[in-house]
Amino acid sequence: MPISMAIIGASGAVGSTLAAQVLRSQLLEPCDRLQLVGHGSAASEGKLLGTRIDLLDAFDDERVEIEVVPKIIDVDADIVVIAAGVGLSLKRTNRRDVAIANRSIFEKIADECASRVPDALFIVVSNPVELGVDIFASRLERRRVFGMGAQQDSLRFARAIAKDLGISRRQVRASVLGEHGQSMVPLWSAVEVLASSPDVHRALDQLKEECARTPLRERVAAIQPLIIELVRAGEVPEAYEIARHALPDARIFVEPFITARSMHSTPNATSNATLQCIVAALACDHRRVHGQVLLEGEVLDLHGTCGVPITLSRDGWHPEPLDWLEACEKEMLLNAAASIRDFTLDVLSQPQPPELELEEATI
Ligand SMILES: NC(=O)c1ccc[n+]([C@@H]2O[C@H](COP(=O)([O-])OP(=O)(O)OC[C@H]3O[C@@H](n4cnc5c(N)ncnc54)[C@H](O)[C@@H]3O)[C@@H](O)[C@H]2O)c1
């Protein structure tokens, strides 16, 4: 069955990188289609037309059909990635301001997708991922909507552990659940190392013991304000140096912040995690990924949006059991779910902001 994929926000850092990674991966074949979707402005259409030719120049060997779709209402795909919206900036310095700005963008895109492609699979990349999932899942079949933030965080955690053990990330399986934000929950009990060397397993045990000595939140709080200060002052090497010395579970709270601030986005890592989710949905082979989904009691009796382990098919997500969580991990996950709920309710109760200023919404 041919694959038809749309990237909403394809002119952005993440959207354009994802398009390149999808084409580079050779996931798509000649009869498949990749839609680069703009948002109705002449500037976004112009940029996408240029992006299309650049992608063709790079990847046309596979003869995948690459289309520019100037308006969201004309999207036509089985898999829709939402990478449109604003991020942190000088004007929007916190997650709440980003959420308030992106809320109306999410609502508009979700309404148009609901009328146009209700049976697609929707992958939310834009932040806050949980707000996006909530809004899309309220307008579409919730099982067809998931956020990729938890997969991104899980890959980061696996890399941080692999780095400290001196092995490849391929040899580490790790899970980060909860929020794609300050309430994320890295699970030491789920870490699996596929290396056979006893030294590596001993080193992992030592790492876990070291982490257990001081609560994660305390370790993050001890370095985060300083890192924020250093990044604000433009002292990026110093900020990375502090992050490098943090233990893996705390490092993933601070390192992405430095990266996002120093290069405006995290396009390669985010696209890679999104691509892994797309590959999992197409393979439909029960491989475990992680995603923010709107739960109705399927896991730990949770109701609301939360990052959990899932499997994927083209028709949507299926929850994986979580009854093996340690008591403290379960408590952290329940707290994360409550914090997500409070944040989302707060944002949804705010008055709608005026239209985004032109210079932000043009491309
Ligand atoms: N989940 C993650 O791990 C992760 C990582 C990086 C970025 N993000 C989020 O993804 C989103 C995109 O990030 P980016 O770095 O590519 O940003 P970017 O500024 O480079 O691109 C933003 C995209 O959104 C589009 N856009 C802007 N206003 C719009 C509107 N009113 N309607 C529709 N589309 C609009 C732009 O045309 C552009 O294509 C942001 O919300 C960002 O916070 C998430």
UniProtKB/TrEMBL annotation:
Residues 5-147 form the Lactate/malate dehydrogenase N-terminal domain. Pfam families: Ldh_1_C, Ldh_1_N. Residues 153-193 form the Lactate/malate dehydrogenase C-terminal domain. GO terms for biological process: lactate metabolic process. Keywords: NAD, Oxidoreductase. GO terms for molecular function: L-lactate dehydrogenase (NAD+) activity. SUPFAM superfamilies: LDH C-terminal domain-like, NAD(P)-binding Rossmann-fold domains. NAD(+) binds at G9, A10, S11, G12, A13, V14, G15, N102, V125, S126, N127. It comes from the Bacteria. The active site is at H180 (proton acceptor). InterPro entries: L-lactate/malate_DH (IPR001557), Lactate/malate_DH_C (IPR022383), Lactate/malate_DH_N (IPR001236), Lactate_DH/Glyco_Ohase_4_C (IPR015955), NAD(P)-bd_dom_sf (IPR036291). Belongs to the LDH/MDH superfamily. This is Lactate dehydrogenase.
